[in-house]
Design goal:
The chain is an alpha/beta fold. It has helices at residues 22-40, 60-78, 96-104, 134-138, 148-169, 190-195, 203-206, 272-279, 301-306, 309-318, 348-358, 363-381, and strands at 2-6, 45-48, 83-87, 110-113, 117-121, 124-129, 175-180, 182-183, 200-201, 211-215, 221-223, 226-228, 245-250, 255-259, 265-270, 292-300, 323-332. It has 3 domains: 2-259, Metallo-dependent phosphatases (Purple Acid Phosphatase, chain A, domain 2, 4-Layer Sandwich); 265-332, no CATH class; 348-381. The strands form 4 sheets. Strands 4-3-2-1-13-14 form a 6-stranded mixed sheet, with helices on one face. A 6-stranded mixed sheet has the order 5-6-7-10-12-11, covered by helices on one side. This is Nuclease SbcCD subunit D.
Length: 382
């Protein structure tokens, strides 16, 4: 039996792009491609490992569009005779209410779980472990006032206990664990997870399962019988160097990763010579074609004065860039003397603004820095 393992889809409007709908359309395109490939591969079951959505708290006009996209994708699969089991993911992305709405649609062949449960399909037991609501646990009497690392351990112990309890309820073998959380041996460093006080799935918790199919980390990977599907579409520059896609597992057999034709992200790091070449009329590289692009450049003040960012942005679009997200400078100052406009008569907020302008920081970021400065001053003065 073939099982497709996919997750971290993050349907949503308002990603950075040419329009608020552009990246949402990218996701829909990739998900339709993925569904067609899953059908072509002859899969009997799809396990969707959480984070169907981008944001949990959205207005109804946006939520209805995103929920419909998810439901349409499910129907695309079930109309081909493929069953789908879905779990909810991280609460900040996946509102349980959205999953309940889809559950009420009664799509034949779709099972949705927002709490731990055991499913059975063709004599295979599937333990479903949705994303954990950490904020709810923090308000429990048992956890109030405890240090973060202690709460982290309590949540990790609960995950282990839940996995073991549900494993014992499995009536068939093989047994599959599908979850949305961090495995303690995943490629995304365990120390980073501990610093964030995030509960983890331990190796002990996975004992007794033939396959462990996870969502949450966007980097597809395999650690023995533990798999992360990653995201089928690149969603930000954090995913620039990640291969997007999903897994197909043959129960009792091999596993194959299917790469999707996702949108490229491309960061160009320019030094002074690169800036000079551009100003001398050299054509921009083809690597920008169809990509979401940003340029980070380092050069002298004199060269920076010659560089017209608006013209560069237009040239990037002419070279085929799908969207120019950022053009950011790191200017090598020839005169380190204090800006004459920055004097002792200026307050801290105005001084930060003057400094940021000199660093060629975007206006939106300048305003954010000034708000943070004002907030810190208020705290110190209180």
């Amino acid at each position: 039996m073939k099982i497709a393992h996919i997750g971290d889809i993050h349907w949503g409007l308002n990603y950075p792009g040419p329009t608020p709908q552009s990246r949402f359309n990218d996701i829909c395109t990739i998900m339709n491609w993925s569904a067609d490939r899953i059908i072509e591969e002859g899969c009997e079951l799809v396990l969707m490992a959480g984070d169907a959505f981008k944001d949990a708290r959205v207005f109804i006009d946006r939520a209805s569009i995103e929920i419909k996209a998810f439901a349409d994708w499910l129907r695309r699969l079930t109309s081909a005779g493929i069953d789908v089991i879905v779990i909810s993911g991280t609460p900040s992305h996946d509102a349980v209410a959205a999953y309940e709405i889809i559950k009420e649609m009664l799509i034949l062949g779709v099972k949705i779980h927002t709490v731990p449960a055991v499913e059975t399909f063709n004599n295979v037991s599937i333990v479903c472990l949705p994303g954990m609501n950490r904020s709810g646990i923090l308000t429990e009497e048992e956890c109030r006032g405890l240090a973060p690392h202690v709460v982290h351990q309590i949540m990790t112990d609960r995950i282990t206990e839940t996995c073991q309890s549900l494993r014992n309820l499995c009536g068939y073998e093989p047994r599959i664990l599908m979850g949305h959380l961090t495995f303690d041996m995943a490629e995304k460093g365990f120390e980073d997870v501990l610093m964030q006080h995030e509960p983890v799935l331990t190796r002990e918790a996975t004992e007794g399962f033939d396959l462990v199919l996870l969502g949450h980390i966007h980097r597809p990977q395999r650690n023995e019988n533990v798999f992360y599907c990653g995201s089928p579409e690149r969603l930000s520059f954090n995913d620039e160097h990640i291969t997007p896609g999903f897994w197909i597992h043959e129960v009792g057999g091999s596993s194959r990763f299917i790469e999707t034709p996702a949108r490229q992200f491309y960061t160009a790091q320019w030094n002074e010579r690169d800036v000079e070449r551009y100003l001398d009329g050299n054509n921009l590289s083809f690597v920008f074609d169809g990509a979401i692009t940003r340029i980070h450049y380092t050069c002298s003040e004199e060269l920076n004065r010659r560089l017209n960012r608006k013209a560069l942005e237009k040239d990037l679009y002419d070279a085929g860039a799908f969207f120019v997200q950022e053009i950011k400078a790191d200017i090598q100052r020839t005169d380190r003397a204090r800006d004459q406009e920055v004097t002792e008569s200026l307050g801290p907020v105005e001084t930060v603004g003057k400094w940021a302008v000199n660093q060629n920081i975007a206006q939106s970021e300048i305003e954010a820095l000034q708000r943070m400065t004002a907030s810190l001053i208020e705290e110190v003065s209180a």
